[in-house]
Design a protein that fits this description.
By secondary structure, the chain is an alpha+beta fold. The chain is 43% helix and 15% strand. It folds into 2 domains: 92 residues, no CATH class; 68 residues, no CATH class. The relative contact order is 0.12.
């Protein structure tokens, strides 16, 4: 299961603003099957790179663009490229690009957001089980007994949630109102 990448704003207003900073997810990037690397096809404004290669020192992909075009670009303030005296360089690593692409997918696709919401619910349940029921530390050495402990913790969590839900919406019998 995937989720939106950490450290990025989940605000749709901020994402749709015209002055938000661009990231590698805004570039047209494909995966080259021949050499198994990312390949930058063009920048958000349509400029094609002059050259690209992998850095020997860092292992990141270095993409070079035309200096004169980048300096004249109206988006140069927002763009992640580094404009030097003679070269314009975009540095990409696979993990950074994957996170940016996942963030763009989250912000643009409603179905993907539903998948992420499912993940958030599952993570909430796991967190509740570890905090409230101590499932991270087993009280037993035997695998079967450890599994049984986990099952009982999950049942207790679900019963407690059911009772709280019944109290909230008023469909529980009066004798169950005082428990939990």
């Amino acid at each position: 299961m995937e989720g939106p990448s950490a450290g990025r704003s989940q605000s749709f207003e901020a994402y749709e603003q015209n002055d938000r900073p661009l990231d590698t997810g805004d570039f047209d990037i494909s995966f080259d099957e021949q050499n198994g690397e990312l390949c930058v096809n063009k920048c958000p404004k349509g400029q094609v790179p002059i050259e690209q290669n992998r850095s020997e020192k860092t292992g990141k992909i270095l993409v070079y663009f035309d200096v004169s075009v980048c300096r004249a670009c109206p988006e140069s303030e927002r763009c992640p490229v580094k404009i030097g005296k003679r070269t314009v360089t975009l540095t990409i690593d696979e993990t950074g690009y994957t996170g940016a692409a996942r963030h763009h997918k989250y912000m643009n696709e409603k179905e993907y957001r539903k998948e992420c919401a499912t993940r958030a619910g599952v993570e909430g349940t796991v967190s509740k089980l570890t905090r409230a029921y101590g499932v991270r530390k087993s009280r037993h050495r035997d695998r079967n007994r450890t599994s049984l402990q986990l099952v009982f913790a999950a049942i207790a969590c679900n019963v407690k949630r059911f009772i709280h839900h019944g109290q909230q919406y008023g469909y529980l019998e009066p004798e169950l109102q005082g428990c939990c």
